[in-house]
Structures are given as C-alpha cells and as structure tokens.
Specification:
Elements lengths: L1 H17 L5 E2 L1 H11 L1 H21 L5 E10 L6 E4 L10 E4 L5 E14 L1 H68 L5 H36 L8 E2 L3 H7 L4 H4 L8 H22 L4 E14 L11 E12 L7 H67 L5 H36 L6
Parallel strand pairs: 1-6
Antiparallel strand pairs: 2-5, 3-4, 5-7, 7-8
Length: 447
C-alpha cells in the first residue's frame, strides 16, 4: 500500500509539471517562456548563483578561521634512546637503553587564525566582484541569443505552415484546371501537350508540398527544443507571419544612434580589460608582505593503555599566540616577469576593446542596412505577387480561350508560385533582421 501511494504521488507530481507547459504560444509568450525554461538560459542563471557563492568563498579567506585537529598515536614498538650508563650507576663510557614517553598519546588542538594583511586577498575581493559582473553579462547575452533563436524558430514554423497552405491551395486550383483540360483533350479540342504540361506542374507542386510538410514538422521540433520542452510536444502558434512582419517594420530602429557602449559585447570586452587590470595588480601585490595572527590551545594525554575516555585520565593543557609574517625578498626575477606578462595581456585587452568597438559599429550599420533592405524587399515582393497573380489569371483565361499556349500558362504559374514563396521569405527576413539588429544593439521590444 505504501509503494502504491508513492507511485501515485510521483504520477501526480509529473502530471502537475506537465500542466505547467502551455499548449499555445504567441511569439511574445514563447520568448517569455524560453527565457525561463530554455536550458542555456537556466544554466546561465546557475552561473550567476555560482559566481555569488565564489564571491563569498573569496570573502571568507579574510575572515576568522577556526580549525581543530585530534591526533592519536599508539607506538607498536617504542623508540629507544641511549644515555650514559653512569647516570644509573653504571660504568663510565657505557650506555644504557631507555624509553621516553608512554606507549599511547592523544593531542587535541584548536587553532583560531586571522589574516591581517595580504595584497592578493584585496585583489581577490575585487576579482570576485568582476567575475560576478561577467556572469551577469553572460546571462544577458544568453538571453538575447535565446530571444533571437526563438524569433527565428517561431518564424520558421509560421513560414513552413504558410508554405503548406499555399501549396495545398495551388494544388487544388491546378487539379481543377487539369481536370478541365483533360476533358477538353478527350473531346479532341486540345493537344496532349497541354495536359502533360499541367501534369508536370502538378507533380512538382506535390513534391514541394511533401517537402514543406516535413520541414514544418522539423521546424516545430526545433522550436520545442529552443523553448526547453520535449521536442515532440504538440503546441499551437497563435500569431501569423504577415502580422508579425507588418508589426516589425519600424523606421525608429534605423534612426537610433550607434551607442556601442550599451551593447552586451562591448560590456563583455570591457569586463575582460578590467580583469586583466586586476591580474596586473595581483602580480604586483605578490611583492607585498603577508601578515596573519593565530591563537591555539589544546590538551595532551599520555598512557600506556587506552584510557583516554576514562574520567581519571590526566590531561595537560597548552596554548599559544603569535604572528606569521611572510616577506618576499628575492625571486630571481620571477615576480618581475609575471608582472610584465600581465602588463602585456592588459595592453592586448585594451586593443581588443577598441577592436570590439569598431567591429560593433560595423555590425550595427550592417544590421541596419539588412533590416532596411528586408523591409523594402517585403513591399517589393508584395507588389510582385499581385502582378504575378494577375499575369497568371490572364494567361489562364487566354489558355482556355485558345489564345495562349500551355507553355505560357505553365510559365505564369511557376512565376506565381515563386512569387508566393519569395513573399513568405521576405516576411521572415523582416522579422529576423529586426531581431538581429535588436540583439546587436541590446534593445528589445515586445511583439
């Protein structure tokens, strides 16, 4: 009965957890969910917690330390010492064997120590703070990348879904045309080539539809992995591709100043420079003296038998107080070489910071250019689709009236199908290029 209750509890806990996973996501809901549940985002948060623990670990080095030791010895064979035999009435020049001490002894000691001055400890405290800052910046960058990944994955699913719907619609229309042309051909009023041309187009569409369905399934799985849920989970997306594309067209993103100091990559590069400065300070601090104090006390017990747990056992107490001073005097140039090496690394990090600044300026300009092109291309492809639809409709009318050939109709249909897919791709490009620009500039907006 007890085992049954345990199993029921486990099942209830599992069901409770599964209910926490939504089955429908808007793009903003997907981003919010991923920032909490994406595995990379969770590990980045754990890194911050680990950095906080490391900061406290470093701080405790300069706080009082209390340690205790208990040492028990049992001499299986005690050491023999030689003393002049005349001490015991023997002949001069002869030696007698004697044993000093008891066969067993216990030494219990407690030591309280306190670091008074250590230059490397002061640098270590500063380094712990910088390490925590690095972890926070790494978490921020991870969140930005997770956000961009969700936007890309979400858009890919919508693109695949729209592609499937368009292919199915085109196949329905084309199948109807093929049936009509086949009847006309059977009545001897149309050439066989016209039927064959439509059959080729229909076959290509069917193949593209099958591939689009496979890509749709893979896109869903990729989104699930990015969300941090099981890759085969069934979810529903509530946003549509065209609305997201329209909502992501904004001239404001193109007019913002290129402030690289607010970008996360610049902050990370700046963290690296600060850490190199601290390493230089650390090497310099190794030439300073180290001073610590200690206070210890304990008890010693001696016996030829194990009587240390008896109340009658005699214990001899002891205690001491003192200082430890370590003075670095001569290292054969080792400390100087380490300091020079740290200085060289600092100079490298300064140049890397400048390089990062220049690279970010270029990346921002490139991202703005790509985003502007994506928006312009979207409107262009939208207009092209309208033209392609009219051209295909005209050629279809001409074909059934006997004015246009089947080859001309097939060309118009192929052009229409290409225009449809190109428009879908430009919608995705608008969304992704906006996400790329926001990721680089560290500016996020809600959908």
């Amino acid at each position: 009965m007890k085992h049954i209750l345990i199993v029921i509890s486990i099942l209830s806990f599992s069901l409770g957890n599964s209910q926490d996973i939504p089955n429908a996501f808007s793009l903003q809901e997907a981003i919010d969910y991923a920032l909490q549940n994406n595995r990379q985002a969770k590990n980045a948060l754990r890194d911050i917690e680990a950095a906080k623990k490391q900061k406290w670990e470093t701080t405790t080095i300069g706080l009082p330390q209390l340690n205790a030791t208990v040492n028990y010895q049992n001499f299986l064979k005690q050491q023999v010492s030689l003393v002049p035999a005349e001490f015991f009435g023997g002949e001069p020049g002869e030696f007698a064997e004697v044993i000093f001490g008891t066969q067993q002894n216990v030494n219990a000691t407690a030591t309280l120590s306190q670091l008074l001055f250590d230059g490397s400890y002061l640098v270590g405290l500063q380094s712990a703070k910088v390490f925590l800052e690095i972890s926070k910046n790494a978490k921020e960058k991870t969140d930005l990348e997770v956000r961009k990944g969700i936007i890309n994955a979400y858009g890919n699913v919508l693109l695949a879904k729209e592609s499937v719907l368009i292919y199915e619609k085109n196949i329905t229309v084309l199948q109807k045309n093929l049936d009509e042309v086949t009847k006309i051909y059977e009545n001897g009023l149309e050439e066989e080539e016209s039927v064959e041309q439509l059959q080729i187009t229909l076959s290509n569409l069917q193949s593209s539809l099958n591939n689009a369905k496979r890509l749709r399934d893979i896109a869903y799985q990729m989104l699930n992995v990015a969300l941090g849920i099981d890759y085969n989970s069934a979810i529903t997306l509530t946003d549509d591709l065209e609305s997201l594309a329209e909502n992501n067209i904004s001239l404001e993103a193109l007019t913002q100043a290129n402030d690289v100091t607010s970008t996360i990559d610049y902050k990370i590069a700046e963290n690296d420079k600060v850490s190199k400065e601290l390493l230089l300070k650390l090497e310099k601090s190794k030439a300073l003296p180290q001073l610590s104090a200690f206070l210890n006390g304990g008890y010693l017990g001696f016996s030829n038998e194990f009587t240390f747990l008896d109340r009658e056992q005699d214990w001899a107490g002891f205690s001491s107080f003192g200082f430890n001073l370590n003075l670095p005097i001569f290292s054969s140039g080792g400390r100087s070489a380490a300091t020079q090496r740290a200085k060289i690394n600092l100079e490298k990090s300064i140049d890397q910071l400048t390089e990062t600044e220049q690279r970010l300026l270029l990346e921002i300009e490139t991202a703005k250019s790509n985003y502007k092109f994506a928006t312009e291309d979207y409107y262009n492809k939208k207009q092209n689709l309208s033209l392609a639809e009219r051209i295909e409709q005209k050629n279809q009318t001409k074909f059934f009236e006997g004015i246009a050939s089947s080859f001309e109709l097939r060309q118009a249909q192929t052009q229409l199908y290409s225009a449809q897919q190109e428009l879908l791709q430009t919608m995705l490009n608008v969304i992704n290029s906006k996400a790329e620009l926001e990721t680089i500039t560290n500016t996020t907006s809600n959908f």
